[in-house]
Protein backbone atom coordinates (compact mmCIF):
# COMPACT_ATOMS: atom_id res chain seq x y z
CA UNK A 1 0.00 0.00 0.00
CA UNK A 2 1.30 3.41 -0.95
CA UNK A 3 1.66 5.99 1.84
CA UNK A 4 -0.65 8.98 1.84
CA UNK A 5 1.07 11.59 -0.29
CA UNK A 6 -0.20 14.48 -2.36
CA UNK A 7 -0.36 13.87 -6.12
CA UNK A 8 2.95 15.70 -6.56
CA UNK A 9 4.52 13.47 -3.91
CA UNK A 10 3.73 10.45 -6.06
CA UNK A 11 5.17 12.27 -9.09
CA UNK A 12 8.32 12.92 -7.05
CA UNK A 13 8.58 9.23 -6.13
CA UNK A 14 8.22 8.26 -9.79
CA UNK A 15 11.00 10.67 -10.78
CA UNK A 16 13.36 9.28 -8.13
CA UNK A 17 12.45 5.70 -9.05
CA UNK A 18 13.11 6.12 -12.78
CA UNK A 19 16.22 8.33 -12.78
CA UNK A 20 19.65 7.03 -11.70
CA UNK A 21 21.86 10.08 -12.22
CA UNK A 22 21.78 13.60 -10.87
CA UNK A 23 23.71 16.86 -10.95
CA UNK A 24 25.47 17.34 -7.61
CA UNK A 25 26.13 20.91 -6.53
CA UNK A 26 28.82 21.58 -3.93
CA UNK A 27 30.82 24.59 -2.78
CA UNK A 28 34.47 24.58 -3.83
CA UNK A 29 36.60 23.93 -0.76
CA UNK A 30 39.18 26.60 -1.62
CA UNK A 31 37.19 29.37 -3.30
CA UNK A 32 33.61 28.80 -2.13
CA UNK A 33 32.44 28.98 -5.75
CA UNK A 34 29.62 26.67 -6.86
CA UNK A 35 30.73 23.43 -8.49
CA UNK A 36 28.51 20.90 -10.29
CA UNK A 37 29.18 17.32 -11.34
CA UNK A 38 27.15 14.34 -12.51
CA UNK A 39 26.75 11.44 -10.06
CA UNK A 40 24.85 8.15 -9.99
CA UNK A 41 22.60 7.91 -6.92
CA UNK A 42 20.70 5.31 -4.98
CA UNK A 43 18.00 5.66 -2.38
CA UNK A 44 18.40 4.14 1.05
CA UNK A 45 14.77 3.66 2.08
CA UNK A 46 15.75 2.45 5.54
CA UNK A 47 17.85 5.53 6.36
CA UNK A 48 15.67 7.86 4.23
CA UNK A 49 18.59 9.38 2.37
CA UNK A 50 20.26 9.57 -1.02
CA UNK A 51 23.44 7.50 -1.39
CA UNK A 52 26.43 8.46 -3.50
CA UNK A 53 29.62 6.43 -3.99
CA UNK A 54 32.42 8.95 -4.43
CA UNK A 55 36.14 8.81 -5.01
CA UNK A 56 38.31 10.57 -2.48
CA UNK A 57 40.20 11.98 -5.48
CA UNK A 58 37.13 13.81 -6.80
CA UNK A 59 36.74 17.54 -6.20
CA UNK A 60 33.11 17.11 -5.08
CA UNK A 61 34.26 14.76 -2.28
CA UNK A 62 36.80 17.29 -1.02
CA UNK A 63 34.12 19.97 -1.23
CA UNK A 64 31.59 17.94 0.79
CA UNK A 65 34.17 17.15 3.47
CA UNK A 66 34.85 20.89 3.84
CA UNK A 67 31.19 21.99 3.72
CA UNK A 68 28.41 19.43 4.09
CA UNK A 69 25.84 21.56 2.26
CA UNK A 70 24.88 20.13 -1.12
CA UNK A 71 22.26 20.41 -3.79
CA UNK A 72 21.08 17.59 -6.04
CA UNK A 73 19.16 18.18 -9.28
CA UNK A 74 17.27 15.20 -10.67
CA UNK A 75 15.43 15.71 -13.96
CA UNK A 76 13.36 13.64 -16.35
CA UNK A 77 14.97 13.07 -19.76
CA UNK A 78 14.19 15.30 -22.70
CA UNK A 79 11.67 13.92 -25.16
CA UNK A 80 12.27 14.85 -28.83
CA UNK A 81 9.65 17.35 -29.96
CA UNK A 82 8.30 17.96 -26.44
CA UNK A 83 8.79 21.30 -24.68
CA UNK A 84 11.72 21.22 -22.24
CA UNK A 85 9.84 23.60 -19.93
CA UNK A 86 7.54 20.68 -19.03
CA UNK A 87 10.36 18.42 -17.78
CA UNK A 88 9.65 17.12 -14.27
CA UNK A 89 12.56 17.88 -11.95
CA UNK A 90 13.49 18.41 -8.35
CA UNK A 91 16.31 20.28 -6.67
CA UNK A 92 17.05 18.86 -3.25
CA UNK A 93 18.92 20.80 -0.59
CA UNK A 94 20.80 18.36 1.61
CA UNK A 95 23.45 17.80 4.22
CA UNK A 96 26.15 15.25 3.42
CA UNK A 97 27.81 12.81 5.76
CA UNK A 98 30.20 9.90 5.37
CA UNK A 99 29.08 6.94 7.47
CA UNK A 100 31.74 4.58 8.77
CA UNK A 101 31.80 1.49 6.52
CA UNK A 102 31.15 -0.91 9.42
CA UNK A 103 28.33 1.17 10.96
CA UNK A 104 24.65 0.33 10.43
CA UNK A 105 24.30 3.45 8.23
CA UNK A 106 27.40 2.46 6.22
CA UNK A 107 26.12 -1.09 5.67
CA UNK A 108 22.68 0.24 4.71
CA UNK A 109 24.22 2.69 2.20
CA UNK A 110 26.34 -0.10 0.71
CA UNK A 111 23.32 -2.42 0.34
CA UNK A 112 21.16 0.27 -1.27
CA UNK A 113 23.87 1.28 -3.73
CA UNK A 114 24.82 -2.25 -4.80
CA UNK A 115 21.15 -3.16 -5.15
CA UNK A 116 20.63 -0.30 -7.61
CA UNK A 117 24.03 -0.64 -9.31
CA UNK A 118 25.11 -4.30 -9.11
CA UNK A 119 27.65 -3.67 -11.89
CA UNK A 120 29.49 -1.29 -9.51
CA UNK A 121 29.84 -3.80 -6.65
CA UNK A 122 33.57 -4.24 -7.35
CA UNK A 123 34.09 -0.49 -6.92
CA UNK A 124 32.86 -0.64 -3.32
CA UNK A 125 36.09 -2.42 -2.40
CA UNK A 126 38.39 0.24 -3.85
CA UNK A 127 40.25 2.08 -1.10
CA UNK A 128 39.76 5.63 -2.32
CA UNK A 129 35.96 5.34 -2.62
CA UNK A 130 33.45 6.00 0.14
CA UNK A 131 29.72 6.22 0.58
CA UNK A 132 28.32 9.66 1.14
CA UNK A 133 24.74 10.05 2.29
CA UNK A 134 22.64 13.10 1.58
CA UNK A 135 19.80 13.88 3.98
CA UNK A 136 17.41 16.32 2.28
CA UNK A 137 16.50 19.44 4.24
CA UNK A 138 14.01 20.75 1.67
CA UNK A 139 13.41 20.87 -2.05
CA UNK A 140 11.85 22.66 -4.98
CA UNK A 141 9.82 20.41 -7.28
CA UNK A 142 8.70 21.24 -10.80
CA UNK A 143 6.16 18.64 -11.91
CA UNK A 144 5.55 20.31 -15.27
CA UNK A 145 4.95 23.77 -16.68
CA UNK A 146 3.03 25.83 -14.11
CA UNK A 147 3.24 23.10 -11.46
CA UNK A 148 5.90 24.02 -8.92
CA UNK A 149 6.12 23.77 -5.16
CA UNK A 150 8.44 23.75 -2.19
CA UNK A 151 8.70 20.38 -0.46
CA UNK A 152 9.39 20.03 3.25
CA UNK A 153 11.98 17.59 4.58
CA UNK A 154 9.32 15.39 6.21
CA UNK A 155 7.57 14.72 2.89
CA UNK A 156 10.88 14.00 1.16
CA UNK A 157 11.73 11.51 3.92
CA UNK A 158 8.35 9.83 3.37
CA UNK A 159 9.03 9.56 -0.38
CA UNK A 160 12.55 8.21 0.22
CA UNK A 161 11.15 5.58 2.60
CA UNK A 162 9.19 4.23 -0.37
CA UNK A 163 12.50 3.32 -2.04
CA UNK A 164 12.87 2.80 -5.78
CA UNK A 165 11.48 -0.66 -6.30
CA UNK A 166 15.08 -1.79 -6.95
CA UNK A 167 15.56 -2.48 -3.28
CA UNK A 168 14.19 -5.11 -0.94
CA UNK A 169 12.17 -3.69 1.96
CA UNK A 170 14.13 -2.79 5.09
CA UNK A 171 14.83 -5.86 7.18
CA UNK A 172 14.48 -8.26 4.21
Provide key terms for this protein.
Pnp Oxidase, Chain A, Pyridoxamine 5'-phosphate oxidase, globular, Split_barrel_FMN-bd, alpha+beta, Pyridox_Oxase_N, HutZ, 172 residues
Helix share, percent: 10-25%
Total E-strand runs: 8
Give the SSE string. Answer: HEEEEHEEHEEH
Tell me which CATH architecture applies here: Roll
Q: pLDDT average, as an integer?
A: 90
> How many domain regions?
1
Strand content: 35-45%
Instruction: Give the low-confidence spans.
Output: 167-172
What global shape is seen? globular
Straight-line N-to-C gap: 17 Å
Protein architecture, described:
With 172 residues, the chain is of the alpha+beta class. It has a single domain, classed as Roll (Pnp Oxidase, Chain A). Helices cover 24% and strands 36% of the residues. Strands 1, 2, 3, 4, 5, 6, 7 and 8 form an eight-stranded antiparallel beta sheet that branches. Strand 3 and strand 4 form a beta hairpin. Helix 1 crosses helix 4. The radius of gyration is 16 Å and the shape is globular. InterPro entries: HutZ, Pyridox_Oxase_N, Split_barrel_FMN-bd. It comes from Ottowia oryzae. This is Pyridoxamine 5'-phosphate oxidase.
